[in-house]
Specification:
Elements: H1 2-18, H2 35-40, H3 42-45, E1 49-61, E2 65-72, E3 89-96, E4 109-124, E5 127-141
Parallel strand pairs: 3-5
Antiparallel strand pairs: 1-2, 1-4, 2-3, 4-5
C-alpha cells in the first residue's frame, strides 16, 4: 500500500511541476471589464480590480516604478492572452519598484491583476491616445517559448529527427 501511495504522490508532484499557470488571487476581480470600457467611463470604473493581459509593447523604468505599455487581448481560463482574438485596446501597467525591461521586453506576454487608477494621455505613433492605468498588485510574465511549459518527458516508440 505504501508503495502505491508513494507512486501516486510522485505522479501528483510531476503533474503540478509541469503546470505554469499563474496563481492569482481573483477575489473581487471584474473579469469582464476591458480597457476600452474603462477608457469610455473612467470615473465609473476607477478603483475596480481587473485581470488583464496582452503583449508588451514598451517598458520604461521611472523613479519608483516601472511602466509597461500593453496591447490587451481576451484571456483564456488560465489568464493567458489569446492573440488569435481581436485586441481590446491598450493600457499601462504601473508596477512599484524596478522590473528588468530586458526581461519585460516588447513581444512578451503578460497577465496582471491590479486596480484601475486613472487615465494617462500619450501617443501611438502620431495619434493621440488615452490609456487606462492599472496599479499592479500581481503579474505573470509568460514563457518566451509559448503558452505553457512543456514537459521534457516524452513517451513513444520510434525515431525522431530534428
Amino acid at each position: 500500500m505504501s508503495k502505491q501511495l508513494l507512486m501516486l504522490s510522485g505522479l501528483c508532484l510531476f503533474i503540478t511541476a509541469c503546470a505554469s499557470t499563474p496563481d492569482f488571487n481573483l477575489t473581487g476581480v471584474e473579469r469582464k471589464l476591458t480597457p476600452n470600457q474603462v477608457k469610455a467611463k473612467p470615473v465609473q470604473h476607477k478603483g475596480k480590480s481587473v485581470l488583464w493581459g496582452g503583449t508588451i509593447l514598451h517598458g520604461k523604468n521611472l523613479k519608483n516604478k516601472t511602466r509597461l505599455e500593453i496591447l490587451a487581448y481576451p484571456l483564456d481560463e488560465d489568464g493567458w492572452p489569446d492573440r488569435e482574438r481581436k485586441p481590446l485596446g491598450r493600457f499601462l501597467i504601473h508596477q512599484a519598484g524596478y522590473l528588468e525591461t530586458a526581461s519585460y521586453a516588447p513581444g512578451r506576454l503578460i497577465s496582471v491583476v491590479g486596480t484601475v487608477s486613472n487615465l494617462e494621455k500619450g501617443k501611438v505613433g502620431e495619434t493621440r491616445y488615452t490609456y487606462p492605468v492599472i496599479q499592479a498588485t500581481q503579474h505573470h510574465l509568460w514563457p518566451k517559448s509559448g503558452r505553457k511549459s512543456e514537459s521534457r518527458v516524452h513517451f513513444g516508440i520510434g525515431v525522431v529527427f530534428h
